[in-house]
C-alpha cells in the first residue's frame, strides 16, 4: 500500500501538518483536431473536463499543458484564455495533456477539516461503546484501514528512535 499524503489534524479539526509524497501523476496526452470532442469548463480557476471521457481522459481531469507548454490554471503560458484558444480552428491540430490537478492549500485545509468532521460524526453514531470513529475509508482509487494505522505507528516509532524529529526539531 502506498501513502500519497499524510495529514495531522488537531482535536479542533485544524490542519497541523501535511505532507505530499511524490507520486507521478497519471497523465494522458492526445492530439485533437477541430472541433474538440470534449467539454471543458472552468472549475476553481482550472480548466477541467466536464463531459466526454475517452482514451484515459476522465471527467475531472485538468488541462496540464498545450502543445508541450505548461498552462497556468485557465491560461496558456502567454496569458491567453485556453477556452478562447481552443475555439479557433487555426490552432489545430493541438496536443493537450490532461491529468489530476494538484490540490491547492485551501483544498488541503478543507480536506483535513472534512476528515475530522467525518471522524467526529462516526464516533458519535457508532453502535459500539467507546468507538474510535471510522474504521475504514474506501474509494474507487484506494482503501484506508487499520494497516495504515499500524504502519504509521511503526514509522513514527522508528523516526523517534533515530532522532529524526521530536522536541526542539
TrEMBL record:
Principal place of residence: endoplasmic reticulum
InterPro entries named in the record: Longin-like_dom_sf, TRAPPC
SUPFAM superfamilies for the chain: SNARE-like
Intracellular or extracellular location(s): Endoplasmic reticulum; Golgi apparatus, cis-Golgi network; Golgi apparatus
GO terms for cellular component: endoplasmic reticulum; Golgi apparatus; TRAPP complex
Highest taxon of source: Eukaryota
GO biological process, one term: endoplasmic reticulum to Golgi vesicle-mediated transport
Gene3D superfamilies named in the record: 2.30.42.40
Annotated keywords: Endoplasmic reticulum, ER-Golgi transport, Golgi apparatus, Transport
Quaternary structure, from the entry: Component of the multisubunit TRAPP (transport protein particle) complex, which includes at least TRAPPC2, TRAPPC2L, TRAPPC3, TRAPPC3L, TRAPPC4, TRAPPC5, TRAPPC8, TRAPPC9, TRAPPC10, TRAPPC11 and TRAPPC12. Interacts with SDC2. Part of the multisubunit transport protein particle (TRAPP) complex.
Listed PANTHER family: TRAFFICKING PROTEIN PARTICLE COMPLEX SUBUNIT, TRAFFICKING PROTEIN PARTICLE COMPLEX SUBUNIT 4
Function, in words: Core component of the TRAPP complexes which has a function of guanine nucleotide exchange factor activity for Rab1 GTPase. Plays a role in vesicular transport from endoplasmic reticulum to Golgi and autophagy. May play a role in dendrite postsynaptic membrane trafficking.
Family membership noted in the UniProt record: Belongs to the TRAPP small subunits family. TRAPPC4 subfamily.
Protein name stated in the entry: Trafficking protein particle complex subunit
Originating species: Cyprinus carpio (Common carp)
Gene from which this protein is expressed: trappc4
